[in-house]
Write a structure and sequence with these properties.
Blueprint lengths: L1 H13 L5 H9 L26 E6 L2 E6 L2 E5 L8 H5 L8 H11 L5 E6 L5 H4 L2 H8 L2 E4 L1 H8 L9 E3 L5 E4 L2 E7 L15 H4 L18 E7 L2 E5 L20 E5 L3 H5 L1 H8 L3 E5 L20 H9 L5 E2 L8 E2 L20
Amino acid sequence: MGKSIFFVTLISIIGRQLPSFLLLFLSAHGLAAGLGSYPHLVVGDSLSSPRNGVRVTYLGTNGYQFEFKGHALLVDPYFSRVDLLSVALGSRIQPNAARINDGLRHLASGNCRTDAILVTHGHFDHLLDVPAVMAKTRARLIASASSVDLVRRLPDAGASSGDAVKPGDVRRIGPWKIRVLAATHDRLFGKVPFDRPPSQALAKAGSPQRAAGWICGEPLAFLIEVNGQRIYIDSGGTPAQLPPNESGSRRMDLAILGMALPDSRARLAAALARLQPRYVLPSHQDDFFRPLSAGFQFGPLTDFPFVQRESAQQNRSRLILLDYFRPWTLPAAVNPKTQTPNPKQRIKS
């Protein structure tokens, strides 16, 4: 009872300073389930799994590593996991070097080169760690103009490696073909968090110091083609901007769709109808204020039971989940013309 009173008092003290979405996080923090509630959906490579395909590793939040034949791509790598109160109170935030090093050690592979880092937008839980990861991997940054500008303002960021892209651009790096697509960011109570025009937000000199300084900018999605397979990835969105309509061509092999907030879930059925993926992986589902070492826990604002119900309506796609740092090799299509997954297939650890 004492802890509850303290928690309510804390919320009442700082409530006026909190964006409403952070207040919701505080009030619901710690109530969500972990992956143990859905063991039948969690996939990962076993010792006998083939290693000659495209391997997908989940890094937490909306972070992923894709590997193929000694080459790797990173998307939104974020290991620091800044605590909730630092963000809520507008404290100065910065990358956690120890956590970044630990995350990269999980991904270390002596024969694997990181070709590029793709960033979907500029919020701190997507971009904060990218300069440090760039410095350690020597990877090229592919992101929107505002995200590249944010990175260039930071010391030792490897700014010369920043490649500002826009929807419609295509990049070919190593075995990867990367199509840049338009996207939107979820709204909460009608507003995109930390959303200011780049011309205003970046007018002041210097690097961002607080969470609000890591502006959303121009959200992007990516279509990655490698090994004859296609992977779509975004970090969320709204029904106003759906993924490209791929129903008239070969199916998507894997769709990684951000589903943290109501806007993203509202577009889920239409997104799946357009992409018709063999596998669908809901992303940005975990509580990104918890350290990765604490294990996966669904974020307080997510609604995974809804995602399950909606995905069940798309009976040609298989819903999966990934645990932190546990690689999974994307299976080849049994019949490339139809690419219909076997619903009974299950990868055992």
